[in-house]
Design goal:
The complex is a heterodimer of chains A (299) and B (385). With 299 residues, chain A is α/β, with parallel strands linked by helices. The radius of gyration of chain A is 20 Å and the shape is globular. Chain A starts with 35 loop residues before the first helix and ends in a 17-residue tail after the last helix. The relative contact order of chain A is 0.13. In chain A, α5 crosses α6. Chain A has a single domain, classed as Rossmann fold (3-Layer(aba) Sandwich). Chain B is of the alpha/beta class. Chain B is 39% helix and 21% strand. In chain B, strands 2, 3, 4, 5, 6, 7, 8 and 14 form an eight-stranded mixed sheet that branches. The longest helix of chain B is centred in the middle third of the chain and has 18 residues. The N and C termini of chain B lie far apart (65 Å). Classes of the chains: A alpha/beta (299), B alpha/beta (385). At the A-B interface, β2, α3, α5 and α10 of A face α2, α3, α4 and β10 of B. β2 of chain A pairs parallel with β10 of chain B. Chain A: It comes from candidate division WOR-3 bacterium JGI_Cruoil_03_51_56. Chain A: Keywords: Oxidoreductase. Chain A: This is 2-oxoacid:ferredoxin oxidoreductase subunit beta. Chain A: It holds the Pfam family TPP_enzyme_C.
């Protein structure tokens, strides 16, 4: 029997996350050894463990390899435009504050084209959980360098090696006001799942960077071997430093990777400060937002 | 409710167009606003920022217009009527997400208080130069609805109409104001709450497990659900099937985009609002919209004094273009005259529909100020010959 003809899963077996995946959309489009499946798996395990009712969770993604995640989760999910996952999620969250809005998107989407929204969402401390997959390049378009590509890495638009200084993402979001910041690699599945779980229960802007292997373009163009070799690199070079000053989290080409939970603090969220400030200013005249229109009946 | 400030300020007011627009939005039930300051639209945002906390709305000032447009789409999917307001440069920045709104069939409204362009152009002076951008400013094939008010009263009334059309046809609707109308102060009468016609969201009422986001009703428009009601739907800007799942092939493009276009084109007669005056036996008909209509009325009155039989067709709805009516009028009149504060944008559609059956005359004007009525008068007289 042809391998192509075999179903993805044995009919009698069930994927443990079947309730959280659109099984009619599986298999996904991601390459073998890509870290996106692992990160999505961690996210869904965390959602499952969180006890948050499934209907109260919405997933928003932008464009790129990671952007496709929204299409695979069996939750209210939005695949938006390039870079605009955060403002879309901002509107969704503010218009229905009961929702737990989770973003799953990539480095190009969140940090390059969407960078402006990222820093302002962090500044506002808006209650969003952002899972930022960093594979060091624009993979969907064939492997161009981006704002997180380590210096010297060769990409199709940096054929002689990238010479731009990359972002230290945890430092960026920390300095802008994010109240939960962590970084793990796709190898740290338990830590990552726990971090996402914490972030889901955290009130405020949380950002979890996931260093994720891209063997098809990043590793291949830099002759770093296959996906397993990248995981070995993570294994040998990751250093868990919880609470470290995010300033010290720079990533260099094939250098050591500082991972861990760096920031976990309380600060009033956008909604908190809005309600407090308007109540103080207007007293009894302040009418808080009553939530979205009611479906079905009424209007 | 503790508030003593009503949402609908029933009575007569002396408002500018920007304020009237904000009040129209509040009156029809808009409760989410995201925007970025830009002249000459800022007064709408200022009014909303002042009023929303008193009536239970969310006002958020975003970091840019791309974010503003994305945020109102998110809010619409949360189940709230949402809007943004901008002017030329901001309108350009919104285009990609207006396309997302068209593709995902998201009800919301975008107000563009037009100024002279291109680029930074004339921030404080008028223009009607974004009319063609309103039609197809985002990439790809789609149809949109755009209305153009000529007075502060209409800024109030048509903002309500825009929301109603947006809910009915599930498409971003554009209110194409211009600086003159936005900053013109006139009497605005706000009706009693019960007298305001409100098109409610077309909620899906079938079985939860049978819900597919893009199964259209008879008029081509699918009913909608909102986030958080356990429908677990998926929405994407990719070409998608009725389930909302991406399908990247020509057959699905035809089905998906075909309906986006048809739902507007097939319902054009219901969408289009025109105002006609003395067109029946007119030798010349002035076709105008926005502030240019107000200027044209002077030219029309002067022409009539000179004995020219001249009528007026005002495009309250500019897009979809009233093709049928233009064809009918072109058959029985000598000339269609169109003044626009641009070098000929909506005129292109007019000329195409007239198909040589009558003369067509563009009266162009550069941004910054309205026409001299004598220029329109001259065109009317030439047209009548």
């Amino acid at each position: 029997m042809s391998r192509l003809g075999t179903p993805f899963l044995d009919r009698n077996e069930h994927h443990p996350l079947e309730d959280y995946l659109r099984m009619d959309r599986i298999p996904h489009i991601w390459c073998p050894t890509c870290g996106l499946g692992t990160a999505l798996n961690c996210m869904l395990h965390a959602i499952k463990k969180s006890g948050i009712p499934r209907q109260n969770i919405a997933v928003v993604s932008g464009i790129g390899c990671s952007g496709r995640a929204a299409g695979y989760v069996n939750l209210d999910s939005f695949h938006t435009t390039h870079g605009r996952a955060i403002p879309f999620a901002t509107g969704l969250k503010l218009a229905n504050p009961k929702l737990k809005v989770v973003l799953f998107s990539g480095d190009g989407d969140l940090i390059a084209i969407g960078g402006n929204h990222l820093i302002h969402a962090a500044r506002r401390n808006i209650d969003l959980t952002v899972i930022g997959i960093n594979n060091f390049n624009y993979a969907m378009t064939g492997g161009q360098f981006g704002p997180t590509t380590p210096e010297k890495a060769r990409m199709t638009t940096a054929p002689y090696g990238s010479f731009e200084h990359p972002f230290n993402v945890p430092f960026l979001v920390d300095s802008c006001g994010a109240t939960y910041v962590a970084r793990w690699t796709a190898l740290h599945v338990r830590h990552l799942t726990n971090s996402i779980l914490e972030a889901l229960h955290h009130k405020g802007f949380s950002f979890i960077e996931v260093i994720s292997p891209c063997s098809t373009v990043y590793a291949r163009r830099n002759r770093l071997g296959d996906g397993l070799d990248l995981l070995k690199y993570y294994h040998e070079n990751s250093e868990i430093r919880n609470g470290i000053n995010t300033r010290k989290c720079d990533i260099t080409f094939q250098g050591r990777l500082i991972v861990g939970k760096f920031v976990d603090k309380e600060k009033p969220t956008y909604s908190d400060t809005m309600t407090k400030s308007l109540s103080e200013a207007l007293g009894d005249r302040y009418v808080p937002y009553q939530g979205p229109m009611q479906g079905k009946n009424g209007d | 409710m503790k508030s003593n400030t009503p949402a609908v300020l029933t009575g007569a007011h002396y408002w500018d167009g920007d304020f009237a627009c904000a009040e129209g939005a509040i009156a029809v039930g808009c409760r989410f606003f995201a925007g970025y300051p830009i002249t000459p639209s800022t007064e709408v945002a200022e009014r909303i920022a002042l009023r929303f906390p008193l009536i239970g709305g969310v006002f958020v000032q975003m970091e840019d217009e791309l974010g503003s447009m994305a945020a109102i789409l998110g809010a619409a999917w949360a189940g709230t009527k949402s809007m943004t307001v901008t002017s030329g440069p901001g309108f350009s920045l919104m285009q990609e997400n207006i396309g997302l709104g068209a593709m995902t069939e998201t009800p919301c409204i975008v107000v563009n208080v037009q100024r002279g362009g291109p680029s930074t152009g004339l921030p404080t002076l008028t223009g009607q130069q974004d009319m063609m951008q309103a039609r197809w400013g985002s990439h790809g094939d789609y149809e949109i609805i755009a209305l153009s008010p000529s007075s502060p009263q209409e800024c109030f009334d048509l903002t309500i109409t825009c929301f109603n059309l947006s809910e009915k046809y599930r498409v971003p609707v554009l209110l194409m104001m211009d600086e003159c109308v936005g900053h013109m102060t006139e009497k605005v009468v706000v009706p009693a709450l019960g007298k305001i016609k409100v098109q409610h969201r077309r909620w899906y009422r079938g079985a939860k497990e049978k819900y597919r986001p893009y199964v259209p009703a008879k008029d081509g428009v699918p009913p909608m659900v909102k986030t958080g009601d356990d429908y677990r739907f998926h929405i994407t800007g990719l070409t998608h099937d009725q389930r909302g799942y991406p399908v990247i092939n020509p057959a699905c493009q035809k089905q998906c985009v075909g309906r986006l276009v048809r739902k507007i084109k097939d319902n054009a007669d219901k969408i289009i609002i025109l105002k006609e005056e003395e067109t029946e036996d007119a030798d010349v008909i002035v076709v105008s919209y926005g502030i240019s209509y107000r200027v044209a009325t002077k030219a029309i009155a002067d022409a009539r004094k000179k004995g020219v039989k001249v009528g007026s067709l005002r495009l309250i709805t500019v897009w979809p273009f009233p093709e049928k009516r233009i064809v009918e009028l072109a058959k029985k009149t000598k000339c269609l005259v169109m003044p626009e504060i641009n070098q000929g944008q909506v005129y292109l559609a007019l000329e195409r529909c007239a198909k040589g059956m009558c003369k067509t005359k563009l009266v162009p004007h550069y941004g910054g100020w309205v026409h001299d009525p004598n220029d329109i008068l001259k065109a009317i007289i030439e047209g009548a010959r």
